[in-house]
Structure of 2,5-dioxovalerate dehydrogenase:
Amino acid sequence: MLIAGTEVFGTGGKVRAIDPSTGDELEPAFGHGGADEVDRACAAAREAFPAYRGLPDAKRAELLERIADRIESLGDALIERAHRETGLPVARLTGERGRTTGQLRLFAEVVREGSWAGVRVDPALPDRKPLPRSDIRQRKIPLGPVAVFGASNFPLAFSVAGGDTAAALAAGCPVVVKGHDAHPGTSELVARAVTGAVADLGLPPGTFSLLFGSGPDLGIRLVTDPRIQAVGFTGSRSGGLAIVAAAQARPQPIPVYAEMSSTNPVFLLPGALAERGAEIADGFVASLTLGSGQFCTNPGLVLAVDGPDLRAFLEAAGAAVAASRATTMLTPNIARSYADGVAALSAHPAVEVLARGAETDLPNACQPALLATDADSFTSDVALQQEVFGACSLVVRCRDAAQVRAVAEGLEGQLTATVHAADGDRAEAAELLPVLELKAGRILFNGWPTGVEVGHAMVHGGPFPATSDSRTTSVGTLAIERFLRPVAYQDVPASLLPSAIADRG
Amino acid sequence: MLIAGTEVFGTGGKVRAIDPSTGDELEPAFGHGGADEVDRACAAAREAFPAYRGLPDAKRAELLERIADRIESLGDALIERAHRETGLPVARLTGERGRTTGQLRLFAEVVREGSWAGVRVDPALPDRKPLPRSDIRQRKIPLGPVAVFGASNFPLAFSVAGGDTAAALAAGCPVVVKGHDAHPGTSELVARAVTGAVADLGLPPGTFSLLFGSGPDLGIRLVTDPRIQAVGFTGSRSGGLAIVAAAQARPQPIPVYAEMSSTNPVFLLPGALAERGAEIADGFVASLTLGSGQFCTNPGLVLAVDGPDLRAFLEAAGAAVAASRATTMLTPNIARSYADGVAALSAHPAVEVLARGAETDLPNACQPALLATDADSFTSDVALQQEVFGACSLVVRCRDAAQVRAVAEGLEGQLTATVHAADGDRAEAAELLPVLELKAGRILFNGWPTGVEVGHAMVHGGPFPATSDSRTTSVGTLAIERFLRPVAYQDVPASLLPSAIADRG
């Protein structure tokens, strides 16, 4: 662990990463921390907070850029370690590193640009009747130390120096990361980069710490530490809900931004199926099997009106799934859960198995699955509506467009909703769109939900249970707002006004 | 009750308002509703939602203005009824009506102006390497039907057509109000104005409903109705926390914006006390006793370094309190709680009673109270840190500036923090300001926290327990964001894009 710049080897249980492609344990062992380490990291973060939030914006931007530089300086060692710990391909990890450093640099731009502070000024109206108006100025300030939980499926972009960390540091919040046990070596390398950047700039060491430990023990301790003021989490629904409950039960409840589960429905409208069903089938299976389907935005649900065009689509998609190669999943646990989830769905009396990927002897492999059911069965059994994390998708055959909409209206909240529509589908798409707006954080047409662009307009969020707080996003620059709150300054003397809301000279 | 434009007399318990200045019951009786009425109102709100949120911005703005017009058309009848039900002076109620209609019209401007939609556009980059970028556009959409709980202390501005209702309607959310039993007649009059405005514009009647009922029964039913998507509440800490707990326990948790309790600390710095102690004393007692102290922002706590200047201040303030007239409180319950709260504090061994207002035989009167204690006693007993709703303030004598800051650092979250500082106090004020930023939603200098300006820069909010969600405000135009969430539109065809994010022709 790295607590406020100091190396600490936890005295709790030891954990080694596992190379999921072989099942072998990797050296070295990492020691789990407990109450003492949480206390040290949180005390250091709280101590660092006033100085860190008081830095000029340019300095915080520089920190983010320095972290990006230092991550790049880790070179191939980082990619190799991440590859061994996660089984993800080197090319994918190289891309993910670019996304991670790009995200840090984008937040640096946001910090420098300044509108994140949400400045609003109502000038004094001394002559107003019946009462004069005071000078009132508003800006946003950081909430305080933030706890970030690394996710297993993006060992760089949603982990130690991922989106949550970048947004919190940008906002002016020190960060305490609970690293994911699936990639401790990767986490340590990145944490050294962050700690090094903090030291390079002479910032308070408590600005950043990395802890390892068990979720129920160290994780819940971290969330309930009174110095922690917000939480960023990406992971399972059960894990997210446990953190939300712990945060709500504190004497002072705090916001939790948990990105949890989503089946990411894809609507195939009749015109699109007729015009380019085979092409859609290719794109669908490529998106479904990308990264063994281990994406929050994996297309796990397909809705369409039954008929010859859908049957042709399913034949093409089924053939592509059957031809797909098994790929290594992130951890033995994830591979087991995937296999169990697919087995349970396949055994459901209302489910038909359309295709499975090739069998394999590789350990921890994902054998893709394409399943189908009918709309009545789907809506009447919530077991069919749960996310299976991995390359598994369930096709729901509907009687007509009205039933497609009815199924859409009954869905839980989602990260994404995708529509494939041709020009002739316009009327149906126009009826569907307002339904989808209430269900998802992102609506996309004629594309695939995997691949979440890091930009200003992105929303990676959505109604519960996709996330615990639909009013925000965990990807894109709007994410900084999660760690801010507004403060109004009324008649504060000019010499004391924070520079963001001071009069320009 | 008025449910989606229809008059309904509840079959539950009957309630009559009480004229607090006489203790007499007022006619007519109002019937409490229950499960059926909640169901009807929520079903109508959900049904109205798609049409209401789909209206052009100009139409929603027109509704808000029409409501304001219709409230004004109620004329003296509204003021008279409110005066009888609350005991608040006619002049105050006339001012509050102006604030209420001004607030509605300000939100109309906000809706027309359009930036509330938070539009962000990342244009497509088809030639980007290695991957092209899609066209991604973001806007904010309304959450859905909102439950609003009327507050007793502002029968117009924080009640049926108060800030929460105005912000929710502006955002595009239908509203179901639970009217406060302390002013049912006032609530009915205002609800008729809203219902009339909805009808005038031909909008779906479910856009607005008013219910009466008991908090634990009808209130909790309303919060847990699956169609309700957010809650606005102003009231007690216990009431707010019960609503938060109910909202969190739903299968789909929803945001609750509860504005609860605050003692609104006032810091009197040495230079200010020396320069203008007597003037500050006058202002303080005027703010303390305004409206019988029944403001969320009532200055219930004063912190200063002990010494001759503080003693002179307390003498002047004590004399002003002793000379103050007893005024009628809003309800018998509030008057009883106030008397009990002051009695408990006065009986505390570490508390000295500096002054009480004149005794009176009037029913439900508030006899102002100025009490004092020392900083060590204050910090060691949370009983001294609780809000007493009404014109009661506790002065905490501190040894030195360091102890003032230490007490400040130990305070719970607050709606406001006030500093009285002279030029010579600059250094001390500069040290205090960052502490106060973390404690309060609004910081004001050389003024008084009562009187919450409705503008763009106002924050009427603050860290827990001042509110249940510090990231927002319940007064001012930023309040609209409470009822919105962002949605991203990726490659959505131009013909389907909502007008807010469509290309301008």
Remarks:
- Residues 265-445 of chain A form a domain with the Aldehyde Dehydrogenase; Chain A, domain 2 fold (CATH 3.40.309.10).
- Chain A touches chain B through 70 residues (CB under 8 Å).
- Chain A has a mean pLDDT of 96.
- The two ends of chain A are 47 Å apart (CA to CA).
